[in-house]
Design brief:
628 residues, alpha+beta, 3 domains, six-stranded antiparallel beta sheet, 32% helix, 19% strand, DUF7869, DUF7869 domain-containing protein
Length: 628
């Protein structure tokens, strides 16, 4: 284990015999070793180890007292500071954090500072403690995989990929910023770094201009280049650590590519991990720190100069490459017929496993955190349907480069508009004023980590709510949908619903859930749908001829089912139990939105609460009419 401690004994003082630390001191030093290795982030620029700036020395001491079982083994705070400074001089708490800050840490740190009573402060401290412990566990899991790849190279390899801040690599680059140089006149260059742990550490740096999109196609292209240029035999297991972003890494496109690697027998198992958002600073960022330090000392006017600075600033020397295009893997798997099955609730989990199952099928499992015991769902999900050998992967479309012909004119415009706009006051602490209401341990964990939402395929279900009852318990299993039954689906405005009748079930997935159905839309008068009659909707073809029943084939993976298998009253109105079911689902959808978009969710909640008084249009989806 890597040790941050300078020495294991007290330094001998002059004219005295060196004394051994007490048993309590040894316990403290062992605890500090474990704590700092789990929470510290090494800074290659100065060789120091930084604790996140939302820690204080007193909080670290409180963690030490809590983790020490016997009270008599705890040292006093003064002794704690003495040993931590004496044996860990490289560990510091920075005054400011240069990297992105975790929203949860920032929010609860502010709540703690504003807390008045001991109960309020204790609740916030407990919440922060659980959050910090979980991010430390995720970091420890990534560290164990790195060590495993270095110690057992025949069994596994570890690849970590992340992007660097584009402001530091724009060309031409000046070591000292000049006021006469406007940032809009610089050519943007995006740097993506990769670290491969296999026997030893290998580093790569990929450079792209702004006309290459930073999306899942870029990540897949980098992975493919790394695997194609692999110098040794590929091991059976691949550990992959990527940045926790949906645009580039945490999406169905990359998951389909990883599953295809197993289908092609490149690997037998792939494990993909994500650190918690706001706590993703890791080894690749340490390499980027060295690049930044070198760029502060040297100028880089051209791409060749930039590559030279990067290659000479880190050990082992990174191999640099320039990418002018990426493979369009997204188009390759999305053109009809699709090659993959869409997975839902990907963003809610941090750990994923791709493995060849007993039936020689590639399946994917997930865990919310690395500390969870079981992978879900138990049988896994097959996200690759088939592989079409007749298709070809083409180059993705480039984004047009920015025109620099009118830079001076644009600069003058910005300077003239500035005084007219005035100073913009940002109020980014509106969420801090909300009260903290933590009652039980389970409620506290739910507030920090959210509810478990394993991945699934098939029709899109409403996300689970934080309320006591789950919406899934209200609507039941979608496998029970049968022909001639009625469905209530969420409308486009997400405040109302549409009614349809299932005429025929065209396709079902492996779990037995219908994915494509042929339906007949039902409409009501231009008024409250909860109290009015429903009639089969009729529409004219291209606005001409007699109106015919409006029938359509819909994909249940693209809609949210609010209720199903219900019937109308004799007056062709909704029954009370169906009305309650739909209202509950709509209300919870509004509450879920309130957590991420408070201002939008307030309007949704008001629209639902006033559904009895206000008129709500429910006349079927606004789409193109089908031909007879």
């Amino acid at each position: 284990m890597q040790r941050l401690r300078l020495q294991d004994k007290h330094p001998a003082s002059i004219d005295t015999v060196a004394r051994q630390p007490s048993a309590e001191a040894f316990i403290l030093l062992e605890w500090l070793d474990s704590f700092f290795l789990s929470h510290c982030e090494r800074q290659h620029a100065d060789g120091k180890y930084h604790l996140p700036n939302n820690f204080t020395k007193k909080e670290v001491y409180d963690h030490y007292r809590t983790d020490t079982v016997q009270v008599h083994e705890c040292l006093q705070y003064s002794s704690f500071k003495h040993y931590s400074v004496k044996f860990y001089p490289l560990v510091t708490i920075p005054a400011t954090n240069k990297f992105s800050v975790c929203d949860f840490c920032k929010l609860y740190k502010s709540k703690h500072d504003k807390g008045v009573t001991r109960i309020e402060k204790a609740e916030v401290v407990e919440a922060l403690k659980l959050h910090k412990k979980q991010q430390a566990e995720e970091r420890a899991a990534a560290r164990r995989r790195r060590w495993k790849a270095l110690d057992f190279p025949k069994d596994c390899a570890y690849i970590q990929i992340d992007g660097m801040d584009q402001k530091k690599t724009a060309l031409p680059h000046f070591s000292k910023q000049l006021k006469s140089i406007d940032g809009t006149a610089l050519v943007g260059v995006h740097l993506v770094g990769a670290m491969i742990f296999h026997c030893k550490l290998h580093t790569r740096a990929f450079l792209t201009y702004n006309n290459v999109k930073s999306d899942s196609n870029l990540t897949i292209t980098l992975l493919q280049k790394i695997l194609l240029e692999w110098e040794d035999i590929l091991p059976p297991t691949l550990y992959l650590q990527l940045d926790n972003t949906v645009r580039e890494n945490k999406n169905n496109i990359l998951f389909a590519y990883l599953a295809m690697l197993l289908e092609k027998k490149v690997f037998t198992k792939i494990k993909q991990g994500f650190l918690l958002v706001g706590h993703t600073h890791d080894f690749v960022d340490q390499m980027f720190s060295r690049f930044s330090q070198a760029l502060r000392r040297e100028n880089a006017f051209t791409m060749s100069h930039l590559r030279s600075v990067i290659e000479n600033s880190y050990d082992p020397k990174p191999i640099t490459s320039i990418l002018t295009q990426t493979w369009d893997f997204k188009c390759f798997i999305e053109i009809e017929p699709k090659l993959f099955r869409t997975l839902n609730d990907i963003t809610q989990n941090q750990q994923y496993k791709f493995k060849i199952a007993s039936a020689l099928e590639v399946r994917v499992w997930c865990k919310q955190f690395s500390t969870d015991y079981t992978w879900e769902p138990p049988a896994g999900i097959r996200n690759i349907l088939h592989i079409d050998g007749s298709r070809a992967i083409l180059a993705s479309e480039q984004v047009p480069l920015k025109s620099y012909a009118k830079i001076k004119k644009q600069t003058r415009r910005v300077q003239n508009i500035g005084p007219l706009v005035g100073r913009q006051e940002e109020k980014d602490e509106h969420a801090i004023d909300e009260p903290v209401a933590v009652t039980t341990t389970e409620e506290l964990k739910r507030q920090i980590f959210g509810q478990r939402r394993p991945i699934y395929s098939g029709p899109r279900r409403p996300p689970p709510s934080s309320a006591a009852a789950d919406r899934a318990a209200h609507i039941g299993e979608l496998t029970e949908i049968h022909e001639k039954s009625f469905l209530a689906v969420l409308a486009d405005d997400e405040t109302s619903f549409w009614i349809c009748q299932v005429l025929k079930i065209n396709r079902r997935n492996e779990e037995g859930e219908p994915t494509s159905v042929h339906i007949q839309w039902y409409a009501t008068e231009d008024s409250n749908p909860y109290t009015r009659k429903f009639y089969p909707e009729k529409r004219r073809t291209n606005g001409k001829g007699r109106a015919a029943l409006f029938k359509q084939e819909i994909d249940l993976e693209e809609v949210v089912v609010l209720s199903f298998n219900f019937i109308f009253t004799t007056a062709r109105r909704l029954r009370k139990i169906t009305e309650k079911q739909i209202r509950t689902c709509l209300f919870r959808i509004a509450k879920d939105k309130e957590a991420s978009q408070p201002e939008v969710s307030n309007r949704l909640s008001q629209a639902i609460d006033s559904a009895d008084d206000e008129e709500t249009e429910c006349s079927g989806p606004d789409i193109e009419e089908e031909e007879e």
